[in-house]
Write a structure and sequence with these properties.
The protein is 57% helix and 4% strand. It has 2 domains: 175 residues, no CATH class; 220 residues, no CATH class. It has 415 residues and is mostly helical. About 2% of the residues have low confidence. A two-stranded parallel sheet has the order 1-2. The protein is globular, with a radius of gyration of 27 Å. Helix 1 packs antiparallel against helix 6, helix 2 runs antiparallel to helix 5 and helix 4 crosses helix 6.
Length: 415
């Protein structure tokens, strides 16, 4: 089957070749590949814009002044997402062709044939890495401490096919492998300071008074006090890992002891959101009813009904009550700055979309541009929770002023 050079079809044929190493393309691999074509279209559009901008900059800086060099105009690359039917045709064709390959030489020859239709170096590099991601969709989503072998994530024959593609594209397989494995851990090595290492703590995650999971629970509660909370596991796990790093540094330790990702997810599910059981049932019922009515109003394009303020405010007030109860379990004064820090970072990272988010008007003097409305990172309810934590911790005013400024400026990290 012939495809236009540097088309999405040609690129996905290479991806399917990698996926077919084990003689099959699973449903999950197919769905992930189909979704990836949309991502690749957006990525290539952005990459084109950036490349053009840099080309213009360098052209103006280093262009010939004496003579104009005529360059042959390159054919425009159309790199657009493909349909499910098209991808199915590609899968059928690739499986049919690879089934005829009886040796490594046959597979290498086929790899050389299909990669000849992808000559754009930017696309080559992206496709080579995407093969790792898509071949790994059938494996566990995360690794624990330390990089597991690539074969723990990807079938050995799929790895073989990726190597053939990398060779044809002149891409460094080892570099791509290292990058892929580094992204499989639930923590980010960039959060480590010089000389620090991560080791697996095979014990259970400590719970209760003066524990990192208690501080995480409080941060989630603060973010949810405005009835609008949205976190991914990765954000919450990153926050937990950063807490462990801060605690180890305070003790002068270079080893960051981390429990398994599975245990952390279980702790987030069972403890991180357990405060919800402490909210008054009537308050919760009223909020749920209000949310239902508000949803109906939005479908009818109706304005916000001020009557909805009462159940919202009641919910927030009950969150403040529960927060004070939970704060009693962080009695160790040496943990107070961490407690405030991660409540601040989590409320900042929470994406408030539906209720009570604040905006301010930004005006650039003498720009001639109209005023711009900018959404604040934290809602009034979240800020009130931070005030409650501040009162609990009894911070020195002078210390707190500098501490708050460093948080706001991102000097103490971000999620």
């Amino acid at each position: 089957m012939e495809y236009k050079e540097n088309s999405m079809e040609a690129a996905m044929r290479c991806v399917v070749f990698a996926l077919s190493g084990d003689g099959n393309v699973s449903d999950d691999e197919f769905e992930a590949s189909l979704a990836q074509t949309d991502e690749l279209e957006r990525w290539f559009g952005f990459a084109n814009v950036m490349n053009s901008a840099f080309d213009n900059i360098f052209s103006s800086m280093f262009g010939d002044e004496e003579e104009e060099v005529e360059e042959e105009e390159e054919e425009e690359i159309i790199f657009e997402a493909i349909s499910e039917a098209t991808l199915k045709e590609i899968v059928k064709d690739v499986l049919a062709q690879t089934s005829k390959c009886e040796s490594a030489s046959d597979l290498k020859a086929y790899a050389s044939l299909i990669t000849s239709s992808v000559s754009n170096e930017t696309i080559q590099g992206r496709i080579a890495y995407i093969c790792f991601e898509l071949c790994g969709v059938d494996s566990d989503p995360m690794s624990d401490v330390g990089e597991r072998a690539l074969s723990d994530h990807i079938e050995k024959k799929e790895i073989r096919n990726i190597k053939y593609l990398c060779s044809c594209f002149n891409e460094d397989f080892k570099d791509l492998e290292e990058s892929y494995l580094a992204n499989k851990t639930f923590y980010d090595d960039d959060k480590l300071e010089e000389g620090e290492t991560v080791v697996l703590d095979e014990g259970d995650i400590p719970v209760g008074e003066n524990t990192p999971i208690q501080m995480l629970k409080i941060g989630i509660l603060c973010a949810a006090s405005d009835i609008d909370v949205s976190f991914t596991y990765s954000t919450l796990m990153e926050a937990y890992f950063m807490m462990l790093c801060d605690i180890a540094r305070a003790k002068g330790e270079k080893e960051i002891k981390v429990q398994s990702g599975e245990k952390l997810i279980e702790a987030i599910d069972s403890i991180g959101f357990s405060w919800m059981d402490q909210i008054d049932k009537k308050v919760v019922d009223d909020v749920n009813e209000m949310a239902r009515k508000r949803s109906e109003d939005m479908e009818k394009d109706l304005d916000y009904n001020p009557a909805y303020d009462a159940p919202r405010e009641a919910y927030s007030e009950d969150c403040y009550r529960v927060l004070k109860e939970e704060l009693a379990l962080v009695s160790d004064k040496s943990m107070h700055k961490l407690l405030y820090k991660y409540a601040f970072l989590l409320t900042q990272a929470d994406e408030d979309r539906s209720w009570g988010y604040r905006v301010h008007t930004r005006i650039v003097a003498f720009s001639g541009e109209p005023p711009e409305e900018v959404k604040e990172d934290q809602t009034a309810e979240e800020l009130h929770c931070l005030e409650i934590i501040r009162d609990h911790c009894e911070f020195d005013e002078d210390m707190f002023y500098g501490f708050q400024r460093r948080l706001e400026d991102g000097e103490l990290g971000y999620l």
